[in-house]
Amino acid sequence: MTAIDSSRQRSARNGGSERAEHLAGLIMALARREGMKAGDRLIEQRLADALDLSRAPIRLGLKALEAAGLARGEPHRGFVLAKNPTSGAAQPALAAIRRSEQVYANIAGDVLASRLPFDVTEAELMRRYDLSRAELQRLLDRIAAEGWIARLPGYGWRFAETVSSPKAQAKAMAFRAVIEPAAIAQPDFMLSQEVIARLRERQQRLLEGELEKMTIGEIYHSGCEFHEQIIRGAGNPFFIEALRRVNAIRRLFAYRSFTDRDCMRRHIREHLRLLEILEAQQYAEAAELLAKHLQRPLVQGVS
Amino acid sequence: MTAIDSSRQRSARNGGSERAEHLAGLIMALARREGMKAGDRLIEQRLADALDLSRAPIRLGLKALEAAGLARGEPHRGFVLAKNPTSGAAQPALAAIRRSEQVYANIAGDVLASRLPFDVTEAELMRRYDLSRAELQRLLDRIAAEGWIARLPGYGWRFAETVSSPKAQAKAMAFRAVIEPAAIAQPDFMLSQEVIARLRERQQRLLEGELEKMTIGEIYHSGCEFHEQIIRGAGNPFFIEALRRVNAIRRLFAYRSFTDRDCMRRHIREHLRLLEILEAQQYAEAAELLAKHLQRPLVQGVS
DNA sequence: GATTGTATATTGTTGCCTAAAAGAACAATC
DNA sequence: GATTGTTCTTTTAGGCAACAATATACAATC
After folding, report:
1. What is the reported pTM?
2. B55 C-beta less than 7 Å away from strand D
3. Domain residue limits, chain A
């Protein structure tokens, strides 16, 4: 009896297909990043590869998209985007992801505002955020992967000083100002023309209007990707890893940081300038420009 | 019936108090790092704080130490070290830790030698290393925390390219050669006299003979601690975090790297020289020396 | 005043089971 | 030849109950 009750409660809470909606959101977000338009085909295997999943879950997501009117499917012909991923109609699908991030964001906020102690027990978190053990488990795994919480040897977890320190944001930028230019200055740094072209194209799309349609989160993500791609040229995974980690934590601050579109526009123009110099293989100069780019204090939120 | 069987099997495998022995090992290792001698008191609360545990598990460890003849306890007077932690008698306790690391080391070796594919499922690992789900879980958590494996969105885990790349070791050193000097060069770098004194004392103890009594793993650990303490002076947790991460991965290689005690001795003398310069607060010079120190290729295993 | 001893409450683990999700292989279709 | 539809197997998640480990508070002792 209790088993039946709990399963009923569960499916009620999930509304039947939370997972599918989540997957739909992932697909839509990907389509957006890739700059796809209404009418483009959504090829299962390609989506699966891009999202590191198999076709089965992709399928679920596609069906959910169809149900939401964002994709059209015909038998044996697969699915096609019905709306531009940047249009307002696509918002609800993306919201599904956002909803699942709710608790995560709450915790992040509470830590940043010191409403949570350094050391916490799982039971405490379960109570406080009304989570099942499994849900919390996944959440903690994720946060641990992002590097701002770690298991204690005994019971409980401890938040990293990286998040709890009041000056974390400035520290993060100082760290980036060291590793990013240094990566470019590595002796075997190299960025292929194709990569440069792709990066340039994306930055230009932003300037040509897409910036206005994006959420803060997406703008932040796009900025991170740009920098990561550049750093990737050093061919040293440790630089990339380190940058990813800083960015994961900076993201926690991102939501609250002041963002002015003009400022961003200037920022993106600097990105384009950097690409020019990199294309000319003037790496020393590029490193210098990047260092300056990162020391600009006003643009912490989106660089 | 099955329940009884499995629990019997379990306690047989554990030999009754594996955990206690493990704790004993931790205490002994700590005593060793702290340079304690036979006759020193083992104060429960202090040990608990140092190991991030409460007194209860410490107690267990102390009793195990007593059972092994490494500590002596009297009622209401607590425990006292019975042997020097560097003596041969202390070895068995430390071995308990090493034993528990067996599977971890196996996996590390298999990954480094490409005997494991990039992507693996939990079930595969459970079969391969004969682990229960829970044991594997903890192991994966730890490896994930060290940053060389990550969950895939669907089933399975993926090893980081940081480990699998053949040039990982060189890349790791290149990364350190960037962040460590840069940390010292940070405008607000500062290292207190006490810290310098403590570090110096420890390095000197090594030169005065302790080096010979240490295992490769301990030597490696000691080197990492030295560098981490130095970097800590920058007051920027991101530098520390990044260094920790590189070191965690370098440790995987450490066991196989050639180590020559003379070479180490030279290395430690460089550490002492660095401390001198830091004490004089000549930070620019110190950064330069550290950069050189890290570019020396022969000593990768222990710097 | 600091430290240890002891009792008690809290917390996390483990094993088992069922259900759900994902992956893989192959046939059908464009 | 690529892509989709379908089926089947494998893998993981979720929930529960008993259990073991850990934390905490307070009294006793040095």
Report:
1. 0.83
2. yes
3. 3-90, 98-161, 165-295
